[in-house]
Structure prediction request, 775 residues.
Amino acid sequence: MNQFLKIDPWCLIGEGFSKENHRASESIFSLGNGRFGQRANFEETYSGETLQGNYVAGIYYPDKTRVGWWKNGYPEYFAKVLNAPNWIGINIKIGNEEVDLAVSRVISFKRVLNMKEGTLKRDYHIELNSGNQLKASIIRFLSMADPEVGAIRYTLTPVNFDDTITVTSYLDAGIKNADANYDEYFWDEVSRDISGKSGFIVARTRKTEFDVCVGIDTSVLVSDNCNVSIPESHEEEKFISTTYTVDARQGKKVIIYKYASVLSSLYHSKNTIQAEAKKVLIHAVETGFDRLLKAHTELWADKWEHSDIVIEGDDKAQQGIRFNIFQLNQTYTGDDERLNIGPKGFTGEKYGGSTYWDTEAYCLPFFLCTSPWKVARNLVLYRYKQLQKAIENGEKLGFTEGAALYPMVTMNGEECHNEWEITFEEVHRNGAIAHAIYNYVKHTDDKQYLIEYGLEVLIAISRFWKQRVNFSKARNKYVMLGVTGPNEYENNVNNNWYTNTIATWTLNYTLRTIEFVKETDRTAYDSLARKTNFNEKVELRDWKDIIENMYYPVDKETGVFLQQDGYLDKEQMTTDELDPAQRPINQHWSWDRILRSCFIKQADVLQGIYLFEYRYDTATIKRNFDFYESRTVHESSLSSCVHAIIAARIGEIDRAYKLYLNTSRLDLDDYNNEVDEGLHITSMAGTWMSVIEGFAGKRIRNNKLVFNPRIPDKWKSYSFKIIFRDSLLKIIVTKDSVILFNESDVSVQLLIFENNHVISGNTETKIKIGEGVYT
Ligand code: BGC
Prediction:
């Protein structure tokens, strides 16, 4: 754990410069606007440890896989989110000396990520070797209002000198990925063009041939009695720059404005991309920094209006939750069904920017409740559009007749990960994708989705489960062999309880959906049956048989659901017996030792209990929670949130609170010692879930919103909004009451503490805590 930021409800504040925390800060202070994003690298030269990162949504490179022993079925490549052309660079020289915070004496330093406005600010005061002292104040943002525009204002003040300041603003497309398998460049230059203060580079990705055009425009403003030269441009392969020299005077400000337009061939024709980048850039320059910033902050205000969670009485928790919500909104804005949410978003290279089961299992609920329904729809539609590829992925592994195995890691629908036993065998992702359809429809009531898209996906996934299980004569049951559950610290296991459970749930849901579609739109059903060659009689019979005869490992003595066959053969220990110096175990133990130990990386059985909670009574949930929480090391960012929700469900609010802090401040306090690689974006949605589904106890039952709110001791109150179907609700939970505002025109039926309430449009209801029952 490394807590170096100040606690503040709306801002992240890092005061004082520390080279040791620099890479971590570059991750934490990252910016994004759904279309592109970047780590919080410095604009000026920095010769210390840094991870440079600029990323453009949907632009990737299929980097040829490196493995020791190639086996059939391995994917050819591991997709990499591309480190894209760097447009923020502004080098500054005082006299002949380069400004470089790794070299100069730093007198004061502060960086602030203002989450309310979506801006990154930095102030520094340094002394160079010459004795010249310089103050700088920088602000930059990536426009939410105009998602192809970024802007920087860099203000310099000479503290104790009159000298020449040379400002070189550049665009560099000669960048590499730190994680390139063969140390190759992934970009080729298509064209470059610079004259005076603005210029463009069109760069093309190798193999995938995406074009990205970045334009930059730089101007320098000085006080009346200082001179600034006309801009001088320079170009070389994959690089353009504009240089100004300023006769700077002590105390007189020099202000640099830099605008960028970032366009990709996902949205523009390659023939006209540069002309369009020029238009966007000219418009940004004409609009000017202040007006661009105003439009940007207005959009953020709108996002906060719907997605904020306000916590009173606990600034640490408040900062944590806002940071998570902020990063989620920066990563995905939901206007394009081709885009998705990489586990690191725009903050690092790890996980290749690809889509994991994280989207369906963790991110969807956040977007369902805080955004217009189309945003969540785009997330589920993404998988529908990749169905054919999922069927092909299945075929590569020997599955037939339209059985779909969605990839564990993907950019375009193809599997692009090759950790065979770990990632590949995590077939449970198919279940999460089916469950997301259910969640989406349950929340929005968009049943038409099932008819047009959902059922087709469900049939294909159900066919996969049918072929993936086999009937064991010895057990007289269906079993599923050779899988990895969500807990990656166990590989290639038999009968993972979670996977078997979600498989039969999917089969069941598919059966119900078939009934529904048949009844509602017979023509659509018939045409889907033809399209998928659906053998109704045989397939339904087989699926029912599996549902009725699936094997689930359970410890008969204690009634605990067993993670997989043989789990109790392991030496049983609990996490409090672990030496803290040995944690995280994945940084201290051999893989062999991890696999043999009983320690669990992340929620697995509890993941299933979370999804299908309604099937189990409180005693069963508690029994399993106590057993698994004491064996879980939470070394996946996706873990604590699920445990927090279950702890709240069984009324253990203090434990839920500790787990909540763990998830909400995972990156801010660097619990797992890895934030320098980037942030855990997908688990941030889990943090949101731990407040809404954990403390507030939000569920949907029989088409009704359900709340069972509880409040951690430390909090005076908390409040949030939920978009549910046509309604918008604001909920405030205090120590003694729950206040609900129906901010929409339609009335809403709810169950609060198991009592029915109808709240008419634009009215409020107050319920005393203690009225009604907790379940
Ligand atoms: C987790 C997976 C997850 C992946 C990406 C891994 O550490 O174990 O469940 O999908 O990270 O977030």
In short: The two ends are 36 Å apart (CA to CA). The pocket of beta-D-glucopyranose is lined by residues 343, 351, 356-358, 486, 488, 602, 636, 638, 682 (CB under 6 Å). The first strand starts at residue 11 and ends at 15.
